[in-house]
Structure to design on (138 residues):
């Protein structure tokens, strides 16, 4: 999913298979933790690529369809509401020791979500973010 053409292929496959897009969930990810003095550039860049760049590219690849579909539906007098759910983390909101890379990427997702909500609201796309955290059993 970090290949430069993945997002375009991914969206094209969805459109070819289903003839449209109703919801996008940007959920892929993993952690590669280390304290900042031991964190490599590879660890830093891997987290940004998976947690921030890939979702950005997927949304960008879907943008032509979103705009065109919204325009067509408006002309036809139909309302179609679409959704984007970006997955963040409380590490992106509050930070977490050993996760400068992950936290920075998830904070970026929070900002991307807010920007996309403002950009795509006019197309009747609800763009939201869910920030999960570790939940310890009682």
């Amino acid at each position: 999913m970090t290949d430069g053409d993945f997002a375009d292929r991914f969206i094209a496959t969805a459109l070819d298979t289903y003839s449209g897009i109703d919801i996008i969930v940007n959920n892929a990810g993993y952690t590669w933790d280390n304290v900042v003095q031991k964190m490599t550039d590879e660890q830093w860049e891997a987290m940004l690529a998976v947690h921030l760049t890939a979702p950005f590219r997927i949304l960008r690849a879907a943008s032509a369809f979103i705009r065109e579909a919204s325009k067509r539906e408006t002309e036809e007098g139909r309302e179609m509401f679409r959704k984007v759910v970006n997955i963040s983390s409380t590490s992106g909101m509050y930070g977490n020791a050993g996760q400068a890379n992950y936290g920075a990427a998830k904070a970026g997702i929070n900002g991307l979500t807010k920007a996309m909500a403002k950009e795509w609201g006019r197309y009747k796309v609800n763009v939201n973010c869910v920030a999960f955290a570790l939940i310890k059993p009682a």
